[in-house]
Structures are given as structure tokens and as C-alpha cells.
Amino acid sequence: GAVVSQHPSWVICKSGTSVKIECRSLDFQATTMFWYRQFPKQSLMLMATSNEGSKATYEQGVEKDKFLINHASLTLSTLTVTSAHPEDSSFYICSAPNPQAAGYGYTFGSGTRLTVV
Amino acid sequence: RKEVEQDPGPFNVPEGATVAFNCTYSNSASQSFFWYRQDCRKEPKLLMSVYSSGNEDGRFTAQLNRASQYISLLIRDSKLSDSATYLCAVNTGGFKTIFGAGTRLFVKA
Lengths: 117, 109
Prior knowledge:
Chain A is globular, with a radius of gyration of 14 Å. Chain A has strands spanning about 5, 10-15, 20-25, 30-40, 45-50, 55-60, 65-75, 75-80, 90-95, 105-110, 110-115. Chain A contains no helices and 11 strands. In chain A, a hairpin with a 5-residue loop joins β5 and β6. By secondary structure, chain A is mostly beta strands. In chain A, strands 2, 4, 5, 6, 9, 10 and 11 form a 7-stranded mixed β-sheet that branches. Chain A has a 4-stranded antiparallel β-sheet with strand order 1-3-8-7, with no helix packed on it. In chain A, about 0% of the residues lie in helices and about 50% in strands. Helix content of chain B is about 0%, strand content about 55%. Classes of the chains: A mainly beta, B mainly beta. The interface of A and B includes residues 44, 46, 93, 97 and 98 of A.
């Protein structure tokens, strides 16, 4: 139980284009979804917290106009990387609090590997 | 100082060895603690939550020391399949969780 489905798994796009990444909670309601970015051999860095029905909360240094987050329903959150550049190439991953895990464990999506050329 | 710090390793150990990882956190108000396992190019998967009383799951034992603000993970009788990166994670309130950079483990035959 407590599965988060994320797609696409990987995407290659040209500089200047936009890419949308979706995360769906399949068997539970996720009122909150976290979006992370991970560069090779580095830690997961929290980008923003999306909340169903309200604006996302962005971490310091993350451009909200570049990384658009929408949490349209209790089971769907999307991250759109707008006007992508090669430096945006990274592993993007979402997570949601796992209602089945004691102590607020998190369930992660399978991640999206973005390559901007 | 980073909020959550781990020794990046790598730890290279033979099969059957016991290996321990430590992780320190800076926010004394942190409430929940976890260990995750991340395989190469995959998403992290929850290994275990960490409680003040310590907890054990098979070959894995996690401990929390609030006074010194660190958590540990002990793996006994290492298997080849334990090779991965181990991330500690600290919940700082609400649902916000901060991850360490991870410790890489290589178990060799």
C-alpha cells in the first residue's frame, strides 16, 4: 500500500522548453507532496512543498516562477520546469507522508531523470 | 553547518562484516528520525524509523541519542545485497524532512 506513481521516468528535452512531471498517490490521499532534486552523488534537496488547494511553499533559492507546482487534487501534484536549461538536468523526485508508516515515514515516487540538451 | 550530516564513505566491507553508520543533526527540536536506503539511480526506500528506545529489524539496528543529537544504523552479517547508499532523514516539524547526503556501502564477496 501507500504507492506514489511518478512519471515520466526520464525525459530529454531541448533548452527553452517546459517539462511537466506528475506524481499521483494511488491508494491514499496526499494533502501534502514534497518535491526534491538530487544531483549525482549529492543529497536530496527539498525544493518545495505542495499543498492541495493552496499555494506551494518554496525553499530558499528555488525560483517559483521557474518551477511551477500545482496540487490540483488530493491525489495529484505536478511540477513543471519552465524554460529548462542544461543546469536543470537532475533527478526530480516527489514524496508524500506515508499514512501506513509510524512516525511520518515517506513514500517516494520512482523519480524523473531530466536531461536538458 | 549542515542540518543533517553523514560520513559519505564509501565503506568497503567483506560479506559477513558488521558496519555502523552515524548521522548528526543540528536542530534539537527534531521530532522523527529515519533511515532510508537508495540504490543507484533509484528512489529512496524507507528502511526503518528510529526511536529513542532503539529498534531492531532483523540484521538492522537503529539507535537515537537525543542528548548528542545523532542517530546510528548498525548492519550485522552484511550481504552483497546491502550495497547501497544509506540516507538518514530528520523530521524538523510538520512534515518537513531533511536528508543527509548519504553514506555509500559496498559489500564485497
